[in-house]
Structures are given as structure tokens and as C-alpha cells.
Amino acid sequence: MTATAHHVGITVSSLDDVLPFYRDVLGLDILSQFTVTGEAFSTGVGVEGATGNFAHLDADGIRVELVEYEPEEEIIEDVTLNRPGATHLGLEVDDIDLFYERLPEDVETISPPQTTESGTRICFLRDPEGNLVEILEQ
């Protein structure tokens, strides 16, 4: 049996706060929103009494899953890419400079677009909760 990709998941503390960023700034279409609760879910995710509020978005055929858990754990500040277990969502654009220029002023970036030794141009953004999103142009 071969595993196939289904989604990339990002845990957030507030769907209401981050969904506009993924929809309006990154241009991802909302596929569905739903809530999952019950003993099987709690046991499956290993969080006693858990409820998950989900939003599934389409990133050109890659499903991005945003999930808000109840009960909520404390947010870890200053997520950095070199920390083991760090994650990020990578999205490719045709013109990274134009994308960067059109970002709303309140979107936090790590740096303007940079050209790496491999020739790929990258910049990293933070969603409203600090989760990292890589924008790249190859």
C-alpha cells in the first residue's frame, strides 16, 4: 500500500483571524468549513475533550487544512525555521517582486525577496498568528 498526499495542516488559535489572510492575501479558495468533535476525534488527536474547527483551502491542487482546537494550547512565540519540528507552507508565484509589492502593509515579512544560490527567489511571511509561509519563484 502506498500513501498519497491528502493535505498540509496548520494549527491556529483563531480561524476568524487567519482565514482572511489565506483567502485574501494568498488567494486560496475555501473548499469547506466544518467542525469535528466526539470521543473518536479526541482519542485520534490525543487531546482530551477536543473539538476541531476546520477550514480546507485549495492551493492549486494542494489542500491546506487550517484547524482551530478547543481546548487551545499556549501559542509559542517567535517560530524560527531552524528549530526541529518547525513547519512552513510553501507557495509558488510567477512574479515574487510583484507579489511582494502588493502585500498589505500589515503583513509581516522576514525579508524582501532574496535569490538563493540555487537560483530560486524566496521570501517568508507570517500569517496573523506567526505561522511561516514561504513564497517562491523558480
Automatic annotation (TrEMBL):
Keywords: Metal-binding. It comes from the Archaea. Pfam families: Glyoxalase. GO terms for biological process: L-methylmalonyl-CoA metabolic process. GO terms for molecular function: metal ion binding; methylmalonyl-CoA epimerase activity. Signal peptide: none annotated. PROSITE patterns: VOC (PS51819). InterPro entries: Glyas_Bleomycin-R_OHBP_Dase (IPR029068), Glyas_Fos-R_dOase_dom (IPR004360), MMCE/EMCE_epimerase (IPR051785), VOC_core (IPR037523). This is VOC family protein.
